[in-house]
């Protein structure tokens, strides 16, 4: 068996894969946060709760309607995104003229209410969600065992991230979004319905969180606290990448996931804090984050 | 002939506010189809606020703004733009995150008859050469050309132009003047805010003078010489 510095290749690549999977979730969630922050100037603290809701909606669809993973891949983002749109239209939209802190407080409160409701309804123990039949099993690659579902999560997350990046940076709709981020008043004066664009953007960012929840459900089990466990790390990722940077949040998400995985191999005690150590270091050197622009 | 006599844009008793401060105090004027009309006045007289009020992007406004028979007060700015009103802001509003081409293509077409990209590149050759650069990498003059060009593409029939020559070199001002005269020939209507009075006189049909949030005088470009002394007093030049 191959080994490196006394560490077996199984352990090394196993942790690397785990890091990539965590990175997939970091990237998807921080991407949604970045998209929302760029357009709405709102730090969406409900993002973790919306991710958890994505997993729960998938679980409930399966339990009560017999709707499986593949239809859920379409339904979950639609339902969670729709929930986001209602939230934005009824509450968030009233806060844009105020300090961004109000948006943070509102979404923080909403996150607590959502989590509280799900804890009340379902307790704190995890509920299993089966891996879809087509993605069960795995391959022995010789140097490691690769479960198909985990590979799928990484690929799906990469695809979602890259298509989002493409849509924002390379299409006409994306140009409208970027312009509206810079100067919403002028963009609206050109005849573009900016409030609609804002609502759609929030819905899209929240839908991304919902999809991430669905992708996570078969791996992590469905649990009302799964969002709050993850969201703190995701905010650290966002701070490191630079608030509002699309490509930055994708690269930092995957990069930090891998770094965390490698730390688990080489110095396990540090694996829980390594991201925060990096955050401190980055903040000291580049306060706007690795890919952020100083204001 | 009655239709020809009614103005394309009519503003009456227009008041506008930024927060608590009352900036316009009953502005009134009109612009007829195919005219180039300027608003003259010192800094702070309310010229830019008048344009912003027409476009629907001031905090609060009241009074009458009638365009093609429709009252614009109460309409959101995107609806006003869709009626064929094009806005070129004083600060030009070129987007840093967009390339020159993306900036040019950003405003949606609001009416048929806008300039094609080829026609725009003939009018402003610099924009073609630099179409892949970030918008704000352009020189001030090129940014002004881009700000005008992107509105010309939309087919807007009425253009609000705020200080197009501010801070530009004489040769660029001449180029922009040629473009504006060209547009006038095609039948566009322009409402122009301008500090550079001599330039304004070379392209405008009529002038309104603003002072302290009101229109205080009006004369045609042909009567300019007779009013020159009065005008110098208004503008403090």
SSE order and pairing:
The complex is a heterodimer of chains A (295) and B (237).
Chain A: E1 3-4, E2 7-8, H1 9-40, H2 47-65, H3 69-90, H4 100-122, E3 138-140, E4 145-147, H5 148-170, H6 172-182, H7 184-189, H8 194-220, H9 226-241, H10 246-266, H11 274-285
Helix pairs in contact in A: 1-5, 1-8, 1-9, 1-10, 2-3, 2-4, 2-8, 2-9, 3-8, 5-6, 5-8, 9-10, 9-11
Chain B: H1 2-5, E1 9-18, E2 21-31, E3 36-40, H2 47-55, E4 60-67, E5 70-71, H3 77-82, E6 85-88, H4 100-105, H5 117-123, H6 125-129, H7 140-152, E7 158-162, H8 170-185, E8 189-193, H9 197-203, E9 206-211, E10 214-220, H10 224-235
Parallel strand pairs in B: 3-8, 3-9, 6-7, 7-8
Antiparallel strand pairs in B: 1-2, 1-4, 4-5, 9-10
The secondary-structure class of chain A comes to mainly alpha
Any idea what the radius of gyration of chain B is? 17 Å
Instruction: Tell me the number of structural domains of chain A.
Output: 1
Q: Strand fraction band of chain A?
A: under 5%
Count of individual domains of chain B = 1
SS-based class of chain B: alpha/beta
The N- to C-terminal Cα distance of chain B equals: 41 Å
Mean pLDDT of chain A: 92
**Order of strands across the main sheet of chain B:** 6-7-8-3-9-10
Count of DSSP E strands of chain A?
4
Mind explaining what this structure looks like?
- The complex is a heterodimer of chains A (295) and B (237).
- Chain A is mainly α.
- Helix content of chain A is 72%, strand content 3%.
- Chain A has eleven helices and four strands.
- The longest helix of chain A has 32 residues, at 9-40.
- Chain B has helices spanning 2-5, 47-55, 77-82, 100-105, 117-123, 125-129, 140-152, 170-185, 197-203, 224-235; strands at 9-18, 21-31, 36-40, 60-67, 70-71, 85-88, 158-162, 189-193, 206-211, 214-220.
- The model of chain B has no long low-confidence stretch (mean pLDDT 91).
- In chain B, the strands form two sheets. Chain B has a six-stranded mixed sheet with strand order 6-7-8-3-9-10, with helices on both faces. In chain B, strands 2-1-4-5 form a four-stranded antiparallel sheet, covered by helices on one side.
- The radius of gyration of chain B is 17 Å and the shape is globular.
- Chain B is an alpha/beta fold.
- The chains are: A mainly alpha (295), B alpha/beta (237).
- The A-B interface holds A 172, 175-176, 178-179, 181-183, 185-194 and B 55-57, 76-78, 80-82, 87, 89, 93, 95-98, 102-103, 105-108, 110, 154.
């Amino acid at each position: 068996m191959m080994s490196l510095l006394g560490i077996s290749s199984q352990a090394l690549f196993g942790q690397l894969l785990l890091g990539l999977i965590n990175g997939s979730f970091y990237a998807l969630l921080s991407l949604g946060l970045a998209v929302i922050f760029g357009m709405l100037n709102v730090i969406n603290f409900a993002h973790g709760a919306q991710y958890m809701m994505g997993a729960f909606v998938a679980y409930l669809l399966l339990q009560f309607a017999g709707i499986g993973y593949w239809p859920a891949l379409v339904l979950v983002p639609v339902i969670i995104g729709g929930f986001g749109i209602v939230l934005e239209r009824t509450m968030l939209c009233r806060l844009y003229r105020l300090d961004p802190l109000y948006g943070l407080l509102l979404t923080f409160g909403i996150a607590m209410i959502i989590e509280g409701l799900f804890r009340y309804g379902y307790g704190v123990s995890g509920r299993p969600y089966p891996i879809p039949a087509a993605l069960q099993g795995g391959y022995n690659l010789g140097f490691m065992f690769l479960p198909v579902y985990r590979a799928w999560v990484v690929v799906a997350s990469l695809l979602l991230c890259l298509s989002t990046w493409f849509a924002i940076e390379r299409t006409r709709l994306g140009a409208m979004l970027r312009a509206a981020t810079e100067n919403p008043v002028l963009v609206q004066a050109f005849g573009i319905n900016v409030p609609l664009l804002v609502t759609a953007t929030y819905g899209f960012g929240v839908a991304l969180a919902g999809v991430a929840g669905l992708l996570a459900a078969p791996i992590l089990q469905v649990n009302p606290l799964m969002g709050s466990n993850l969201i703190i790390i995701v905010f650290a990722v966002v701070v490191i990448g630079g608030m509002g940077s699309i490509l930055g949040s994708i690269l930092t998400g995957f990069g930090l996931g891998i770094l965390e995985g490698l730390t688990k191999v080489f110095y396990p005690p540090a694996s829980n804090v390594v991201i925060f150590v990096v955050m401190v270091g980055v903040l000291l050197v580049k306060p706007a984050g690795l890919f952020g622009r100083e204001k | 002939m009655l239709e020809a006599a009614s103005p394309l844009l009519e503003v009456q008793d227009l008041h506008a506010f930024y927060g608590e401060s009352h900036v316009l105090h009953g502005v009134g004027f009109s612009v007829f189809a195919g005219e180039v009309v300027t608003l003259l006045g010192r800094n702070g007289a309310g010229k830019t606020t008048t344009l912003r009020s027409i476009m629907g992007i001031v905090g609060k406004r009241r009074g009458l703004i009638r365009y093609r028979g429709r009252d614009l007060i109460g309409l959101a700015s995107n609806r006003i733009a869709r009626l064929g009103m094009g806005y070129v802001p004083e600060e030009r509003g070129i987007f840093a995150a967009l390339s020159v081409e993306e900036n040019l293509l950003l405003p949606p077409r609001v009416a048929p008859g806008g300039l094609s990209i080829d026609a725009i590149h003939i009018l402003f050759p610099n924009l073609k050469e630099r179409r892949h650069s970030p918008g704000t990498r352009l020189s001030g003059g090129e940014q002004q050309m881009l700000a005008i060009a992107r509105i010309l593409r939309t087919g807007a029939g009425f253009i609000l132009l705020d200080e197009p020559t501010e801070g530009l070199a004489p040769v660029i001002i001449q180029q922009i003047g040629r473009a504006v005269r060209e547009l006038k020939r095609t039948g566009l209507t322009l409402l122009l805010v301008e500090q550079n009075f001599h330039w304004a006189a070379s392209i405008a049909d009529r002038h309104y003078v603003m002072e302290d949030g009101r229109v205080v005088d009006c004369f045609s470009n042909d009567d300019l010489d007779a009013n020159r002394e009065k005008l110098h007093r208004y503008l403090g030049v």
